[in-house]
Amino acid sequence: MTQKNVEQLKRFQTMSIESHEFASISCTEGKLWITAGHGFGDIVLQKGQDISLITKDKIVLEALEDAAVSFAFTLRKDIPGEMAH
């Protein structure tokens, strides 16, 4: 099942997306810092940019300024061809 959310984040506010998920993250306002665990390093998205990730680690977002983020995520067990871990 895919879940879609839109969140408003104040400057320095953080949020996380749990592990074992496919996530599509779009910055619709402001600027976001994202870390997704091993192998990804730090990612910065500005208004109008997006990224898609598959990771076993928690995805953490922090607003570098007031921001709006739109994201959709699917549990890996729900992705065709993937097995639950």
Spatial shape:
globular
Mean pLDDT: 85
Order of helix and strand elements from N to C terminus = EEEEEEEE
Terminal Cα separation, in Å?
Answer: 16 Å
- The chain-level structural class is mainly beta
Number of helices: 0
CATH class: Mainly Beta
- Determine the strand fraction and express it as a percent band: over 45%
CATH architecture, by name, is Sandwich
Question: Can you offer a commentary on this structure?
Answer:
- Pfam families: DUF2917.
- InterPro entries: DUF2917.
- This is DUF2917 domain-containing protein.
- It comes from Denitrovibrio acetiphilus (strain DSM 12809 / NBRC 114555 / N2460).
- The protein has 85 residues and is mostly beta strands.
- The chain has a single domain, classed as Jelly Rolls, CATH 2.60.120.
- It has no helices and 8 strands.
- It has a 4-stranded antiparallel beta sheet, with no helix packed on it. It has a 4-stranded antiparallel beta sheet with strand order 2-7-4-5, with no helix packed on it.
- A hairpin with a 6-residue loop joins strand 4 (31-35) and strand 5 (42-46).
- It is globular and about 35 Å long.
- The two termini are 16 Å apart.
- The model has no long low-confidence stretch (mean pLDDT 85).
